[in-house]
Design a protein that fits this description.
Blueprint: H1 24-28, H2 31-34, H3 39-58, E1 64-69, E2 75-79, E3 88-89, E4 94-95, H4 96-102, H5 125-131, E5 133-142, E6 145-152, E7 155-156, E8 161-165, E9 170-177, H6 189-202, E10 207-212, E11 219-223, H7 228-236, E12 248-254, E13 257-265, E14 272-277, E15 280-281, H8 287-306, H9 319-323, E16 326-332, E17 339-340, E18 346-347, H10 350-370, H11 372-400, E19 426-431, H12 433-442, E20 448-453, H13 465-469, H14 472-481, E21 512-516, H15 521-537, H16 539-543, E22 547-550, E23 555-559, E24 562-566, H17 569-578, E25 584-587, H18 596-604, E26 611-613, H19 619-630, H20 634-644
Parallel strand pairs: 1-10, 14-16, 19-20, 19-21, 21-22
Antiparallel strand pairs: 1-2, 2-9, 3-4, 5-6, 5-9, 6-7, 6-8, 10-11, 12-13, 13-16, 14-15, 17-18, 22-26, 23-24, 23-25
Helix pairs in contact: 3-5, 3-6, 6-7, 8-10, 10-11, 11-14, 12-18
């Protein structure tokens, strides 16, 4: 039967229903399980295997984990836990090892007897890794014997075999990602070690050894932190000036929920709170973070009132005041966590809020009574913040005035787009009026808005809220974006209500905010300043995937009527080979050197441009890096530059 003249099938029967057996579904739609098939999803495979070993550690059966990138780009993860069961699984009719490796939603994490708490919530981790590998091998040491099974693209090539006697007890998994699945098999040692270091901090006493065994890039890192979350906070704050002698450590348990917190106040002006549930970084916060904030504000105000520290009886500190300069790590273990939010990293268990409130409130009150000098230093910092907050109120109101975008006082004029739907709109933040003029002429006016920025914006890492809001370029960005900002840069809006109102993404005017700066050192500096502002005061824009970086070309090559663009040195060399080294070359010093047509064709046309999405895979490490690069201390910055100078490919002189 034909429909509208096309040969389209009109029937819909049982024959049309395709059943994907085994792990076929994973290979068909890998992004559903690991996020994407780029570098991020590739490294996620390591963490899925390591999480199983961490679960063994949390259950008290594992003290050491070895992770190695092998010379053939395979990955090996070894732990000294109990080892994956190898005995016969009655229901599935095969070895328990094969069940775990080849069946989705199979594991020991559902009955809460094997594992009381677990980071792997759905039992899909190791089987997904197996499915997305062209080959995988697992060895298990149990009761003095070594067992092995091998797999090809998620399917066992044979039964579990006994290999002989061994002193090894635990599991060893080696896998090689399938090149037919992933864009590129290119491991980054630093990406892997950032998460491994974080896990070592969160699980005090466990030793994690990371090795890169590839020729010419051999490295080894050993992580073991007896100090746990307290040592984590010290690590995060090592490039800031602490105002109290050492982190305040709190540990307690209520209703079967263990809670660990470490708090340290420093002389910075932003808060840095990192929250975890079962070792999962809850970047959107949740009930545990809300409990922390409420308890902290209430306890500090109660102590101050009780000890008559406030001169004005009606004066109280806001949550933002209490958290200025705070670096904190909170880790809770929940047997049945309920996650919500866009990225499924926001804890929704309402009972956890009260548990955290109680644990922190009681412990912190006792601590302040025992160490009044520490309490006074924290309160002095909070009172200074309150005074600055009052000074910033007028500047804040200025950014919220209706019609502020039409004000003639703005240094950079916003050229808005005609479409009002944020999902289809994008805002270009452009360095300089010259490039801004070209961008305005070359853009698609229907959905692309352009906001030129004059000079270098304020480094908010070194400025308080009132100074930040007095900066015209920053006020302009806040007004144009329309979603407000977070007073202390926490970005998640959990906890007590403060007068800054936090961010409201429902008022966001553009779905994509694209930073477009020159491809030189100054452009990189301006881009970093803008990213620092977004990270500290509009972090939700990053976590929800709204921030991008434009990639303008470095070179234009032409010969006769043929014209091509190169975005890096390698691209230029490839084009020169194509032209047999007989081509004219123009090295762009800035965006302003491109006319509107060239800027559109190379950098703004959605069909041809390349943009990089900014994400926070490791928030704690990102915070530390921003502090090193943009903070007050020179020595850490010099050390970072010296350590990474060898990776620089293009340097403008």
């Amino acid at each position: 039967m034909e429909i509208n003249g096309n040969n389209k099938k009109s029937t819909y029967t049982a024959e049309d229903i395709k059943v994907l057996k085994g792990l076929e579904a994973v290979r068909k739609r890998p992004a559903m399980y690991i996020g994407d098939v780029s570098q991020r999803g590739l490294h996620h495979l390591i963490f899925e295997v390591v999480d199983n070993s961490i679960d063994e550690a949390m259950a008290g059966h594992c003290s050491r984990i070895n992770v190695s990138i092998n010379a053939d780009d395979s990955i090996t993860v070894i732990d000294n836990g109990r080892g994956i069961p190898i005995d016969y699984h009655q229901e599935e009719g095969k070895s328990a090892l094969e069940v775990v490796m080849t069946v989705l939603h199979a594991g020991g994490k559902f009955d809460r007897h094997t594992y009381k708490v677990s980071g792997g919530l759905h039992g899909v981790g190791i089987s997904v890794v197996n499915a997305l590998s062209d080959w995988c091998q697992v060895k298990v040491g149990k009761n003095g014997k070594l067992y092995k099974q091998e797999y090809k693209r998620g399917v066992a090539t044979g039964p579990v075999t006994e290999e002989g006697k061994t002193d090894f007890n635990g599991s060893e998994t080696t896998f090689h990602p399938d090149p037919d699945i992933f864009e590129k098999i290119e491991w980054k040692f630093t990406i892997a070690t950032q998460r491994l270091k974080e896990l070592a901090f969160l699980n005090s006493g466990i030793e994690i050894i990371a090795e890169d065994l590839r020729p010419e890039s051999e490295r080894k890192e050993v992580y073991k932190f007896e100090g746990g979350v307290s040592q984590f906070v010290e690590y995060l704050d090592e490039n800031r000036q602490a105002i109290i002698p050492k982190p305040i450590y709190i540990s307690g348990e209520r209703d079967g929920v263990p809670v660990e917190i470490a708090l340290q106040w420093n002389d910075s002006y932003t808060e840095n709170i990192f929250s975890y549930v079962n070792n999962i970084n809850t970047i959107e916060g949740g009930s545990h973070l809300a409990g922390l904030k409420t308890a902290l504000t209430r306890t500090l105000n109660s102590y101050a009132i009780k000890n008559q520290i406030f001169k004005n009886d009606k004066f109280t500190l806001s949550g933002d005041d209490c958290r200025e300069g705070l670096t904190c790590v909170i880790s809770v273990m929940v047997s049945e966590p309920q996650f919500e939010g866009q990225t499924k990293t926001k804890l929704g268990n309402s009972e956890v809020k009260g548990i955290v409130e109680t644990v922190i409130g009681e412990a912190l009150s006792t601590y302040f009574e025992e160490y009044p000098s520490v309490a006074k230093k924290i309160l002095d910092k909070a009172v200074q913040s309150a005074r600055a907050r009052e000074a910033a109120r007028k500047a804040r109101d200025l950014t919220r005035r209706k019609g502020a975008l039409e004000s003639g006082d703005l240094p950079g004029k916003l050229a808005d787009c005609s479409i009002n739907d944020p999902e289809h709109c994008e805002l270009y933040l452009v360095e300089g009026n010259s490039a801004g003029g070209s961008a305005k002429q070359g853009r698609d006016r229907r959905f692309q808005a352009v906001l030129p920025l004059r000079g270098k914006v304020l480094n908010v890492e070194k400025a308080r809220l009132d100074k930040m809001l007095s900066n015209l370029e920053i006020r302009t960005m806040i007004s144009a974006i329309g979603a407000g900002f977070s007073g202390q840069g926490n970005g998640n809006g959990d906890g007590d209500t403060d007068d800054n109102g936090g961010m409201n993404l429902e008022k966001l005017r553009y779905g994509r905010i694209i930073i477009m700066t020159d491809a030189d050192v100054d452009g990189a500096h301006i881009r970093t300043l803008i990213l620092t502002f977004f990270y500290r005061y509009m972090r939700e824009l990053i976590t929800q995937g709204h921030i991008y970086i434009a990639q303008p070309p470095l070179y234009r090559l032409w010969k006769g009527k043929q014209e091509f663009y190169a975005y890096d040195e390698d691209g230029r060399e490839r084009l020169l080979e194509r032209f047999n080294s007989k081509a004219n070359i123009q090295r762009y010093k800035g965006l302003g050197e491109m006319n509107p047509e060239q800027l559109w064709m190379t950098t703004m046309d959605p069909e041809r441009r390349t943009v990089l999405k900014v994400s926070i895979d490791e928030a704690a490490e990102a915070d530390r890096l921003f502090t090193i690069l943009m903070g007050d201390k020179v020595e850490p910055r010099r050390a970072f530059i010296e350590a990474n100078a060898r990776y620089v490919k293009n340097l403008d002189v």
